[in-house]
Amino acid sequence: ISFTEALQHFQSAELSASRGKLRAPGRRGTLAALLRCLRGPPRLCPQLRGEQELALAMAQCALDDSERVHMRILQTIYRQLTRSRLGCPRYGAHWEELGFQGRTGSSPLPEEIPKIHSNLPWNLPVLSQLPQPLPLSFLNAGILVVSQNFPFCIMSVNITRIVIQALQEERLSRECNRRQQVIGVLNDLHAAAFLRLSRLWEQQHGTVADAGFFLKELELSTKKKPRQLLKSLEAYLSR
Asked: Where does the record place the ELMO domain (predicted)?
């Protein structure tokens, strides 16, 4: 399935149950509003609120085995990461080879990654775009997982959580307003964070035991310096 078709599916889907889980923004007092104006991030433009709500609703949408589009997305993730022309069974050890904790492609996070929690049951299709060309070590995710014990898909789900949280906290409003889009910014920031992770993992010879530390660093960079991350991605792609 293409990214555009997957996005169109979620745009046209009801998602009422997912939208019902969204947290309403808290009320701010006069002092808080003043401090925000002086030094806080800007608010998201009103015309982008609908796209923000869609992204947050998608983050609450669980993987459904009975939904054909969900299964096509899962198969596409497998084929893109393994460079395989063939699909794969719904259940099996091949999902563990891609870094899922279990054989379903939709499992909880491993105990080895401390203090990291995500209610995202699978990697969002709109946030599964990795930079092309990929870093050399990511060209074959299966080999990377086996040789370096890299939890590829679990880390991707965690990066999705970080990016979505940054959106909820309005850390990305400035960039979204500048580009007049939300999902495009989320896509690029997810790819930029994954690129940063790949460099950290290679430079520091990372293991699963280091995953929590790396994720904390990614969360700090994503929330405090999103523009810097995006510029790093732009520089990488330009080469």
From this structure: 69-226
